[in-house]
User: Which sequence fits this backbone?
């Protein structure tokens, strides 16, 4: 069994301290004044000013010309890319430009998942109402200033979280919901709420918990993302428990299933099928028992989520994964790990290339920045990169 939950728990206390930001309701108002980028146009190449004297004929310099859009060579699937974003606290420079470019090209990013910090969900909704937004809370602060870990609530005979006192899965669902509902209310732009994170045990108890929680959430108009186990899970022997919750979700409520996929020591394309593309095993079973609901791979990444592999490698690897996801109609998309601070994995540098790939269009600003070098009669260059 593979789990990264114990790593995530280390950051739960810090993240939870910021879970109740003041003024969340006004964030859309803060974002809405942002000016949209003007419609893209061909870059303007300056022409020489007219003069009475004869203008020397410019000659093309021998300096190499930079390639402005190297990632349009990677073609997104014909039906659109299923690559979305996973977002945690930390820098995410270029996110606004990325979301704007995708929306203006009528190729809005398929999904954005946020953990504790939901600003990116507000921004995604500002640029397009077609982007599915997901949210999850690592922890919730209690009145006594202590924190409740919301990532995994175990049966009462084990170790229920601090501040809880349940005896059944149904009681646990009620107490869980009472804690998260005020925060969910503050973030109306989140379409789907995940609950547990990489809790890959007590499958039957979790199924009872999710079924009870769906009843509570639906009454207030909320949708759930069920399960979210660690990579390599669920084990086949527990498929019936997963199916039981999925069958209830299929009846009503528009809930979804969430799974995680990682290569623990390399690229996605090099991972065994027991870790990456494992979701197909699960769905083969769900189809047999009439329990298919939409799927989001709510975390997926290289090297167990540690370290950014570089723009070209990242893009090539995720283009391969995108092609895999496009083969399965029940897959909404995946949340690529990650934007923000986590073990050097922040892929913000790849956002322009990812926008090129999703839209099929190079960034017009980068085109303008790489005009050919023109040498005049004095050997001086004009139109050089800005």
Assistant:
């Amino acid at each position: 069994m593979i789990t990264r939950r114990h790593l995530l728990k280390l950051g739960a206390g810090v993240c939870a301290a910021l879970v109740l930001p003041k003024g969340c309701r006004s964030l859309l108002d803060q974002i809405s004044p942002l000016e949209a980028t003007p419609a893209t146009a061909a870059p303007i190449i300056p022409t020489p000013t007219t003069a009475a004297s004869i203008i020397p004929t410019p000659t093309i310099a021998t300096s190499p010309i930079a390639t402005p859009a190297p990632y349009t060579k990677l073609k997104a699937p014909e039906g659109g890319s299923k690559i979305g974003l996973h977002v945690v606290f930390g820098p995410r420079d270029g996110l606004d430009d990325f979301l704007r470019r995708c929306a203006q090209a009528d190729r809005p990013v398929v999904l954005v998942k946020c953990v504790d910090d939901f600003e990116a969900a507000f921004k995604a909704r500002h640029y397009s109402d077609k982007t599915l937004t997901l949210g999850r809370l690592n922890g919730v602060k209690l009145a006594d200033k202590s924190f409740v870990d919301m990532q995994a609530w175990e049966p009462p005979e084990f170790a229920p979280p601090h501040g809880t006192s349940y005896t059944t899965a149904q009681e646990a669902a009620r107490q869980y919901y009472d804690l998260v509902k005020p925060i969910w209310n503050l973030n109306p732009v989140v379409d789907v709420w995940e609950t547990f994170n990489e809790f890959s045990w007590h499958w039957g108890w979790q199924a009872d918990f999710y079924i009870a929680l769906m009843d509570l959430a639906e009454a207030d108009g909320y949708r759930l993302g069920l399960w979210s186990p660690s990579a390599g899970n669920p084990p086949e022997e527990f498929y019936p428990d997963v199916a039981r919750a999925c069958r209830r979700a299929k009846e009503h409520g528009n809930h979804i299933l969430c799974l995680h996929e990682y290569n623990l020591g390399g690229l996605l394309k090099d991972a065994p099928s027991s870790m990456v593309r494992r979701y197909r095993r699960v769905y083969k079973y769900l189809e047999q028992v009439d329990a298919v609901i939409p799927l989001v791979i709510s975390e997926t990444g290289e090297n167990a989520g540690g370290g950014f592999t570089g723009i070209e490698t990242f893009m090539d690897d995720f283009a391969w994964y995108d092609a895999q996801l496009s083969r399965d109609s029940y897959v909404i998309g995946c949340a690529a790990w990650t934007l923000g601070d986590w073990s050097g994995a922040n892929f913000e540098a790849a956002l322009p290339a990812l926008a090129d790939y999703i839209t099929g269009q190079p960034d017009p600003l980068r085109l303008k920045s790489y005009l050919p070098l023109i040498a005049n009669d004095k050997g001086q260059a004009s139109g050089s990169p800005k």
Remarks:
- The first strand starts at residue 59 and ends at 60.
- The first helix runs from residue 5 to 10.
